[in-house]
User: Fold this.
Amino acid sequence: MSMAPAAVQAGRRTAPRPPAMMIARRAVNRLTLPVLLLLPALIIIAGLVGYPLVRTVYLSFTDTGLGELIYGGSTWVGLENFREVFADEHLRASLVNTVVFGTACVVGTMVLGFAVALLLNQRLKGNLFFGVAVLLPWAVPALAASAIWKWLFDARYGFVNWALVNLGFEGFADYAWFAGRWSAFVAIFITVVWQSFPFVALALLAGLQTIPKEMLQAAAVDGAGAWQRFRLVTLPLLRPIVAVLVIFSTIWDFKIFDQIYVMAAGVPDRSADTAAVAAYREGFALSHYGLGSAVAVVLFLILLAFSLVYVKLIGREGELG
Amino acid sequence: MRWVLKRGWMYAAMALVALFALFPIYWIVITSLKPRSEIYTRTPDLWPSDPQWDQYPRVLGEGHVGRALMNSLIVASGTMVICLLVSAGAAYVLARYRVRITRILLILVLMTQMFPLVVLVIPLFVTMRKAGLLGTYWSLIITYLAFSVPLAIWVMRGFVMSIPEELEHAARIDGATRIGAMWRVVLPLAAPGLAVTAVLSFLEGWKEFLLALTFINSEERKTTPLVLQTFVGRGDTDWGAVMATSVLYTLPVAVVFVLARKHLMTARTAGAVKG
Assistant:
């Protein structure tokens, strides 16, 4: 549109003025294809993620129960639900569980993942076998993994108790792992780490393989020991990928649902529930949809903070182009 | 002796890790082959005295696991097909058009990967109920698109970006339209990327539990994770059946993972998304 006056000013009055209509049409033509291609995906994201998100935030300010959820007519209660989230013992505990248990899982996963990546990078004999062995737990769906470990940690017939007793820990005969909050967390922690260390290990291995051998050799020539080489050469070079993996593990372990829902179901007073499970239960089991939404919103805000850090981080790395 | 000191401990550590990774998988397989008397014993054997396969036909038949696997297959395939159709074009546009809005859209796509599903599930439940879709395959296929489409867009965009744009320019100079160039040049070259994306979106549907738990209200439509949860949730769990079901449920995924591990790793690290 702005081209027309420019042409006039240039004194080319005799030249046919490009009609505004045509320019507009050309722009529309150029944009039609990308817009058409983007539209279905955008509709899906807006409809299935955007709308429900806004709706949940709205619900978290209302006293919606089952009736109101289906027929409408809920009343606005302001921040009442959020006050309740932090006042209610069970819900507050679920938030604490999320942070403590989630952080423990992230640390466990990262430490084991890093150790395995370094081992795989040594190119030992049988590396292919180790690589596949380490990959397999990642392939096990969460529900199957929960079932497997629940069986391994079974009080009477479980392998873990049998092995512990045979190793001399007599106290573990018939030890009920899922009868207490902390012992249940130990079992679930092992399940989660078992499932998530493969990804971290293989991603870090890919990172390790990009480090030029010359740099490590040069450091060795300068007299750096194995630990110094790791701390002063390897770690700084891997920092970006480590940061991304930490953030991703955090998001993943904080929102974990399946394993907790299945494995923590029998823990007395539901004291091992995390925020995701508590939000779900508050809604669908107790019909407190407003309160459940408030728990979900709090969890969402925690994760949003991590997501923003992540987006900033990869934005800086220039991966978004 | 020096070798033992220098490398030996690494082999020992690696063996320990392999044991940790593989033992649970080994244990489900042999538990599924043990007769009842050897499962419910306080001195478990590391090897079944007399491996029996009858657990498998039993769960597939009366345990309704066969039907559940079929339900999972239908839902996961439906998700995969629609997801690919919807995301391929979007991934192409986000890879090729570099304008400010592209960046915003990409961040949006990425953020959707980080949402806890529990934030979305209540409104989705209401919508599905209003639409009369509760308890149907469609309720799952449609809602699974919420997280499989962003993942697919992100992974496929990486693949499209690795295809040189000059090839498309060349095709267009030779008279192809933009769509023609996409169809004849980009699509064939992006085939491996499409395959990886297909696998990933299939697995999203295969593994999903939370939404299935919420929407499915009849025995006939239960997907495999729901059946497993019912088994484990019971007071008197039939562990032989649970283990046989877990083996059947995991086997296809494990095969795909081992065969396609290089590609999966590239795709997953590109998106930095894990399942």
Observations:
- The longest helix of chain B spans residues 2-33.
